[in-house]
Amino acid sequence: METGGSAGVAGTGGTTDAGTPELTDPEFCEATCDAIEHRYYLPRAFCEDWAYPDFERTPAYCEPTQAMGCVDLCVDGLSRVPDVCHDALRVAADCAAQSGDYSGPEVSSCILQACHGVLFRVSIECHGLRDDLVSARARWAGEGSENYSYRFTHYSEQATVEVMNGVATVVQGMLPTALTIPELFDDIEARYDEGEPAQIDYDPALGYPAEVVFYPPLCGLYTSDVWSVSDVVLE
């Protein structure tokens, strides 16, 4: 998990590894709302600008609630999400609260540039991306095989990969490295760990990642990495 902002905001009690007392959620929310001078409400401020590209997904902290002030809404939002999402939201809120003056005449798309890594972490941890990956892995483990072939497309480049006894070989086209389906899952997980969310369509039957678009956290330059897996044949 990335850390950012000030020390002692990643939990709900006790102390940090450095011995600094951690803030409870109400204390954290009070300090954060004071820091941003109630200019916007956290964590709901991340729902519009930092929602995962699949807008059908709505994490619990974005769901409608009764009218609340900044502190109450912050505490409520943090209380209704899984631990990994809770921790990601606290780090992102703390970073946003320290990111400078939002009231000046010039407001750019990079106003939270220093927080892009932790904001993308919110996308990963709060929109069920890891849960989707775990489910897809399980489908492949249950329905897949050690022997199969598939077509890998990266932008306009295509290659046919054959996997025998869990070892991948390129049999047509060119690839820097041939990967098995489990290794493709590993690559997705590693990039999540680096803070790169992805929009992924997993095959509903076999679970392999059929269409993948990664969104590297680059301020103002949202280049994407696109690849796909098709024509999977089990042997």
Describe this structure in words.
With 235 residues, the protein is α+β, with helices and mostly antiparallel strands. The chain folds into 2 domains: 25-126, no CATH class; 142-234, no CATH class. Helices cover 34% and strands 18% of the residues. The chain has helices at residues 25-35, 45-49, 70-79, 83-97, 116-126, 129-143, 181-193; strands at 148-154, 157-164, 167-173, 198-202, 209-214, 225-234. Strands 3-2-1-6-5-4 form a 6-stranded antiparallel β-sheet.
Concise summary:
This protein is an alpha+beta fold. The chain has helices spanning 25-35, 45-49, 70-79, 83-97, 116-126, 129-143, 181-193, and strands at 148-154, 157-164, 167-173, 198-202, 209-214, 225-234.
Q: Determine the strand fraction and express it as a percent band.
A: 15-25%
**Helicity, in percent?**
25-40%
Cα separation of the termini:
39 Å
Outline? elongated
Mind sketching the topology for me?
Blueprint: H1 25-35, H2 45-49, H3 70-79, H4 83-97, H5 116-126, H6 129-143, E1 148-154, E2 157-164, E3 167-173, H7 181-193, E4 198-202, E5 209-214, E6 225-234
Antiparallel strand pairs: 1-2, 1-6, 2-3, 4-5, 5-6
List keywords for this structure.
single chain; 235 residues; alpha+beta; disordered N terminus
